[in-house]
Amino acid sequence: MGGISGLVGNALTGLQAAQKALQVTGNNIANVNTPGYSRETLLQTPQAPSQLGGLYLGNGVLAETVSRSYDAFVQGQIWSSTASASGARTFNDLLQPLVGLIANDVAGLGSSLNRFFSSGVAQVAAYPADTAARQTMLGQAQTLAQTVQTTASQLYEMNDALNLRLRQGVEQVNELTRQIAQLNVQINDLSGSGQSPNTLLDQRDQLITELAGQVGISVVRQGAALNIYTSNGQVLVAGERALALEAKPGSFDPSALEIGYVGNPNSLSSSLQGGVLGALIQFREQSLQPAQRSLGLIATGLASAVNAQQAQGLDLNGQFGGPLFEVGPVQVLGASSNSSGVSISGSVTDTSRLRATAYELSYDGAAWNAIDRSTQQAVALTVSNLGPVTQLDFDGVRVSVQGAQAGDRFQVEPTAAAAYGMRALMTDPRKIAAAAPYVSSAGALSSGALVNTNLGNLTLSAGAATATSGSVLVSATAPQALQITLTSGGTSGQSIGFTVTQPGTTAPILATGSLTLGSSGTTISVPYPSPSPGGYWTVTLSGNTAVSGDAFTLSPPGPGNGGNARAMAALQTAKLLDAGPTTPARTSIESAYAQLVGRVASQGNLAQNTANAAEAVARQNEASRQAIAGVNLDEEAARLIQFQQAYQAAAKAIQVGNTLFASLLQAVQ
Predict the structure, then answer these.
(1) Which residue in 327, 331, 429, 444 could disulfide with 134, CB within 3.0 to 4.6 Å?
(2) Does the pLDDT of residue 651 top 90, yes or no?
(3) Of 50-64, 365-379, 492-506, 613-627, the least confident
(4) Residue 112 CB contacts under 8 Å (≥ 6 apart), including other chains
C-alpha cells in the first residue's frame, strides 16, 4: 500500500496500537494493589512491508499480544517461601501459649510443687502433731493436684482448638484446589487461541500461593494446566480434577484428627509439611503431645512416690497411710480396623521406668511386637500367658489382653491421661502418715517404760523402708513392737549372736542373727503388711563392743514422730524417674519438670527465630517478584504520556492524509 492511503493506513494501525497500549497501561494502574497481579505489556511488531516502485514500504504496526511480566523460578520461590513462612509463623503462634503455660513461674506447676513440699510436707515433718500444719499440707496437696489437672485441661483445650483449625484448613484447601482445577480447564480452553489469558493465569498463581499458605506443595506443569502435589508427592490437583481432603478421627485416638482423601481410610498427615496444616500437625506431634506425656509422667511419678511413702508410715490413728493422690489411667487405644471382642487394659508396674512416650503393639497371630512411636525403635517385651489372658510387660507398663486376632494393633499411652485425672484424695488431716513405723531405742521395755542398762557401745540405726530384706528377716509385721537381745558379748573382730522377740518375752523367738563387731553391721528387716505397702523396714545393728544381755527396742512412734514426713519431703529431689532395666532412677520430679520447661522454652525460642527468618525470606522473594512483575506507578505514568503522544501523532498523520486526499479530489474536479 502506498501513497496517501499508505499514510492513513499506517497511521491508523499506530493509532489502534497506541489506544491498546493506553488500555493496557490503564489496566496496570487499576490493578496496582491487586494481590498476585502481574504487570502487562503490549507487544508490538512491524507488519510485513510491501514492495512498491522498487521500494519496500512499511505497512504500520501490529499489536501482537499482551504479555505479563512473569518469572517461573521466582514464582516457585514464592510458593516455597510462603509455605515455609506460613508454617513457621503458625507453629510459633501455637507454641508461645504453651511456653507461657508450662513455664509460668508464679502460678504454674513449679511453684505449686515447691509449695507442696516446702510449705506443706516440711511443716508436717517439723510439727507432726500439729493439726494446722497437717491441714496446710492437705491444702497444698489440693492446690498441686488442681494445678496439674488445670494445666492438663488447658493442653486438651489446645488440642480441641487445633482440631478445629485442622477442619477449617482442610475446607480452605478443598475450596482452593477446586478453584485451581476450574481455572486449569478455562486456561486450557482459552490457550488454544494462541493468546495468553493473563488474568486467569494471575488468578491461578495467586490461588496456588494461598494454597501454599495452607500446606507445602510442589507444582508440575502439564501443558497449560498445573498439577499440584503435597511436598511428599500426594496429589491435590490433577489437571481439571481436584482431590478432596477430609479431617477424620485418628486410627487409634479419635481426638487426634488425621487428614486423608475423602473416602480413603489411609492418612496423609505425615506427608503434609509446611503451611498451616503442616504446622498444626507438627505442633501436635512435636510439642503438644510430648508436653502432655511429660506432664503425665511428672504427675504419675509424684503421686506414686508420695502414695508409697504414705503407705510406709503411720497416721495419728496408728494405721498405715492411705493414698494422697490419684492420677488418670494408662490408655490402651485399639486401631479402628481391629477385630471385635478384644479385651485389653493397661497398668503401671514400675513408675521409675516409665517413659514420656507412646507405644504401638501389634499382633501377627503368633507373636507380639512393640515399637516406641516417638523413635520408631523396637521395644523389648516380656510376654506371659496366663490362661486366656496374655500379659505384656515393657518399660514399667503391663498390658493385659484377651481375644486378640492377627493384624490387631493398639496404641499404649502410659502417661498421656495421667495429669488430667490427677486429684487429691485425702480430706482428714489425721490420716497423713507422718510417723515412721518404728522408733529405734537402746534398752528394753519394762512395765511399758524403756529402761536402758546397756553396757556395750552397739547402736541400732533409725531405719528406713527398703524394697529388699536385709540379712536377718523377722517373722513379724510392722509396726509390732520388737526387742533385740544380745546372747553373747565380745569386742572388735569377734562374732556375737542376738535374738528378736516381742518386748518383755523370751519366746517365741522371731529371728536370730549374728554380728561381727567392728564391721559395717548386720541389717535386720521387718516386713510391711502385704500387699500394701509391701517391702521392709530395715535397721542396722553395729558397733565394736557388746555385752551379753544388752537390748534394743523397735517400738511404734508417738504422735510427735515425723520420720516418714521427713522421708516424704526428701522426695522433692530424690531420683525417682528415668531408670533402666538394670540401672537405678536418674531424674527427680523437680528435674523432670525443669527439663520439660527447658525443652518447651527452647522450642519456643527456636520457633520464634525460625519464623522471623522464614518471613524475611518470603519478603525477599516477594520483593523479587515485585521487581519483575509489580506495577510501578511512576513508570506507568511515563508510559501514559508516551502512548498519549503516539496516539496524538498517529491522529495527526491521519489528519494530514485526510487533508492531502481532499486537496487531490479538489484538484481533479
Answers:
(1) 429
(2) no
(3) 50-64
(4) 140, 143, 144, 147, 148
Write the DSSP symbol of residue 431.
Answer: G
**Rounded-to-integer distance, Cα 211 and Cα 82, Å:** 9
Is the distance from CB of 432 to CB of 137 less than 8 angstroms?
yes
Q: What is the DSSP letter of 117?
A: I
Record the cell numbers describing residue 171, joined without a space.
Answer: 475446607
| DSSP code at position 438 | -
Measured CA to CA, the distance from residue 505 to residue 485 in angstroms comes to 11
> Which residues, at least 6 apart from 302, have a Cβ–Cβ distance to it below 8 Å?
113, 325, 571, 589
C-alpha distances in Å from residue 275, one per residue of 43, 236, 327, 514: 38, 14, 37, 74
Strand partners, 227: 220
What would the grid cell of residue 175 be? Answer: 475450596
Rounded Cα distance between 440 and 485, Å, is: 13
Going by their DSSP bridges, the two strands 536-542 and 459-460 should be labelled as: antiparallel
Q: How far apart (Å, rounded) are the C-alpha atoms in residues 50 and 393? A: 95
Closest listed residue to residue 307, CA positions, set 666, 564, 26:
564
Say if residue 437 is preceded by a cis peptide, omega within 30 of 0.
Answer: no
Sign of CA dihedral 348, 351, 357, 362: negative
In whole angstroms, give the CA distance from residue 479 to residue 437: 5
Instruction: Check pLDDT > 90 for residue 20.
Output: no
Using CA atoms, how far apart are residues 462 and 441, in angstroms rounded to an integer?
8
Tell me the angle at which helices 131-191 and 198-214 cross, rounded to the nearest 10 degrees: 160
**What was the pLDDT predicted at 517?**
96
Percentage of the chain beyond pLDDT 90 is 69
| Rounded CA separation 101/517 (Å) | 58
- Reply yes or no on whether the pLDDT at 3 is more than 70: no
Angle among Cα 223, 181, 264 to the nearest 5 degrees reads: 115
Which among 275, 465, 285 has a CA at the least distance from the CA of 375? 285
Q: Is the pLDDT of residue 423 over 90?
A: yes
pLDDT at 432: 96
- The backbone torsions φ and ψ at residue 237, rounded to the nearest 5 degrees and listed phi first, read -135, 125
CA distances from 631 to 39, 201, 207 (A): 6, 17, 20
Region of 403 on the Ramachandran plot (φ > 0 left; ψ -120 to 50 alpha; else beta) = left
- Given this model, what pLDDT does residue 454 score? 95
- As a residue count, the chain comes to 669
> For residue 83, what pLDDT band results from cuts at 50, 70 and 90?
very high
pLDDT-derived band at 492 (thresholds 50, 70, 90) equals very high
Phi, psi of 189 (to 5 degrees): -65, -40
Q: How far out from the chain centre does Cα 515 lie? A: 56
Name which of 201, 204, 206, 259 is nearest 232 in CA terms: 259
Q: What is the DSSP string of 384-420?
A: EEETTEEEEEETTEEEEEES--TT-EEEEESSTTTTT
Strand-pairing partners, residue 522, are 541
Q: What confidence tier does 106 reach under pLDDT thresholds 50, 70, 90?
A: low
Per-chain mean pLDDT for the chain = 91
- Of 570, 579, 537, the C-alpha closest to 554 is 537
* Gap between the Cα atoms of 25 and 328, Å rounded: 69
